[in-house]
Design brief:
- It is a single chain.
- By secondary structure, this protein is α+β, with helices and mostly antiparallel strands.
- The protein is built from 12 helices and 22 strands.
- The strands form 5 sheets. Strands 6-5-15-16-17-14-18 form a 7-stranded mixed β-sheet, with helices on both faces.
- α1 packs parallel to α4, α3 packs antiparallel against α4 and α9 packs antiparallel against α12.
- It is globular, with a radius of gyration of 21 Å.
- The structure holds flavin-adenine dinucleotide (FAD).
- Flavin-adenine dinucleotide binds next to α1, β18 and α8.
């Protein structure tokens, strides 16, 4: 394939690296520019949904994630009074080769995908190379990269902006990120304490509704990650202090000893979607295109689904199998998913967990109990939360 059509990718996160691997597999020349000097190892997403694992399997990455992480075949909603509603991914075993979630840190996926890319002579990753500007004409994109030796302009055929929530590509293209930011931030604290030994029948993924302070427990190998909302007026230093983290963990399970805390992170939570996913020869994907709250684990997963959709369409156009207008379908198919599907589910998850009104709480619990106890409804529910429904919805858009 002609090198003048090289696809440039800003960002070596899961989205940029999935796009680059999909393109490299198809023989498309691709260069990824990563701002950091090496792959960042920060604690962020840790949930891989079944259809995402199906996509990653073609890179050999699903099996590696299973080996490095753990399989979570069930998902649970609970309250402090002992109510539970449980869903089993076995209900969709006929629809996926991976009827479970895998809990594994996203940076491990990045490592697998970056290493895999080095096998292809037509693919590269350039580290310490932040993209700072973007220009284009009818046939090329011109990406300015700010390296230690100075600024350099790289010419390519197409650009994928997968440079995360603060995307410079999005800014350079002048595309607004519409939506809102929640007033409260979320705290994630991880501890090796085995909650499963003290909370009866606890699943590896468990959401606890509580009008005072909901929380979410998620197990990764050797650790439990606990997520809590914070109050808008709380100061960052207080939230992250030993005393306040301890108080929140003690509310999950009161014990005489202190909890050992391995990581703590506080982050802002947004519900925002870019006004456009394409401008000429440049595209946005992943967090650069959409941000949502993490209840449902849909951010990275949805971003990977964007990356596969876009990379396959670019491959079709570069091979001459499809007209360039095919690329407009990327936005038509993927933007409504971020707006109507991911936003709706993640906002509903938050509202249901924090509901204060007793009537609202009761209705939510009764609905979930009925859904969990009816095999047909439970299957539909699992199809939705595993994001299979979102992929079907996108595929149906012409
Ligand atoms: C605490 C937390 C928990 C989360 N949990 C989940 C979960 O369970 N499930 C889920 O699906 N999602 C979750 N998310 C969201 C998930 O982490 C993101 O959706 C995901 O990282 C998006 O991937 P990305 O590749 O689009 O962006 P990123 O992972 O942000 O990667 C962007 C990359 O671009 C690089 N970069 C930035 N600017 C430039 C530039 N100008 N030029 C070149 N490179 C640049 C960055 O260094 C980075 O490597 C969570 C997020 C947080 C913060």
């Amino acid at each position: 394939m002609k090198d003048g059509n090289r696809v440039l990718v800003a960002g070596a996160g899961p989205v940029g690296l999935v796009a680059a691997n999909t393109l490299a597999d198809a023989g498309v020349p691709v260069t990824v520019f990563e701002a950091e000097p090496q792959l960042p190892e920060n604690l962020r997403a840790s949930t891989f949904h079944p259809p995402t694992l199906d996509m990653l399997a073609k890179f050999g990455a699903a099996q590696r994630l299973i080996e490095m992480g753990l399989k979570a075949p069930r998902l649970q909603y609970r309250d402090r009074a002992g109510w539970t509603a449980e869903f089993d991914f076995g209900a969709i075993a006929d629809l996926t080769a991976h009827p479970f979630r895998v809990q594994c840190e996203q940076y491990k996926l990045n490592g697998i995908l970056a290493e895999r890319l080095t096998r292809f002579p037509h693919a590269q990753i350039e580290f310490a190379s932040p993209v700072v500007d973007v220009a284009q004409d009818g046939a090329h994109v011109f990406v300015t990269v700010d390296e230690s030796a100075g600024k350099r302009v790289v010419t390519g055929g197409w650009l994928i902006g997968a440079d995360g929530g603060r995307s410079r590509v999005r800014e350079a293209l002048g595309i607004p990120l519409e939506g809102f930011t929640w007033p409260e931030r979320f705290l994630v604290a991880s501890t090796p304490f085995e909650f499963v030994n003290v909370i009866p029948n606890l699943c590896d993924v468990s959401y606890f509704a509580d009008p005072e302070e909901w929380f979410f427990l998620l197990r990764v190998p050797g650790l439990w990650r606990a997520m809590f909302p914070t109050r808008a007026e709380e100061q960052e230093a207080d939230i992250l202090s030993d005393a306040v983290v301890e108080r929140r963990l003690q509310r999950i399970w009161a014990r005489p000893e202190r909890y050992e805390v391995r990581h703590r992170t506080l982050y802002s939570v947004h519900q925002r979607v870019a006004e456009a996913y394409r401008k000429g020869r440049a595209f946005l994907a992943g967090d650069a295109a959409h941000l949502n709250n993490p209840l449902g684990g849909m951010g990275m997963n949805g971003g990977i689904h964007d990356a596969v959709n876009l990379a396959e369409k670019l491959t079709g156009v570069l091979r001459g199998d499809a007209d360039e207008s095919e690329l407009d379908r990327y936005e038509r198919q993927r933007r409504p998913i971020a707006l109507e599907y991911v936003n709706t589910i993640t906002i509903a998850n938050k509202r249901n967990l924090e509901a204060r009104d007793p009537g609202e709480q009761r209705t939510w619990r009764e609905t979930l109990t009925r859904t969990a106890n009816d095999p047909a409804l439970a299957r539909e529910y699992v199809i939705r939360v595993s994001m299979i429904a979102s992929l079907r919805k996108a595929a149906a858009i012409g």
